[in-house]
Write a structure and sequence with these properties.
By secondary structure, the chain is mainly α. It has 5 helices and no strands. Helix 2 runs antiparallel to helix 3 (61-84) and helix 3 (61-84) packs across helix 5.
Length: 137
């Protein structure tokens, strides 16, 4: 039964489908390109989150939060693609690296009383105002 027929059948029975996900098998080239794109997102976040900044060039809190959430999403994307394409070259290594980062991030968030999903979801739904405590220069 194809997905559309399956969705219609379930819909007619009153069942709501919210996340009907099917693993996407990639070629090695597609996988490599996808991993390169996600790695670019991670690397772009490094300039905001990991590099030292002077007081005058420090990114705003909302910029830092968005960079962190983008980084977390990129690692989640890497993990998912790597698990779904485990037969490809470097997939198991990328899955291990991504899982390691996500585990450490979750540990860090949990120790400060926050969950990653809640932190990033709430920021996406409700943009925060810039720091009112920051002096204007």
């Amino acid at each position: 039964m194809n997905r559309l027929a399956f969705a219609i059948l379930l819909g007619l029975n009153g069942v709501l489908i919210t996340n009907y996900a099917v693993a996407e098998t990639m070629t090695q080239e597609q996988f490599d390109q996808y991993i390169a794109e996600q790695t670019r997102v991670v690397n772009e976040s490094k300039a905001i989150l990991d590099e030292p900044h002077t007081a005058s060039e420090k990114p705003s809190i909302s910029t830092e939060r968005q960079a962190l959430c983008d980084r977390i999403q990129a690692y989640q994307n890497i993990l998912k693609a790597s698990q779904e394409n485990s037969q490809l070259n470097m997939a198991s290594m990328m899955a291990m690296v991504a899982q390691n980062y996500l585990d450490r991030q979750n540990q860090s968030m949990n120790s400060s009383g926050m969950a990653t999903g809640v932190f990033c979801k709430s920021r996406a739904e409700q943009p925060i105002e810039e720091d009112k405590a920051k002096p204007s220069i």
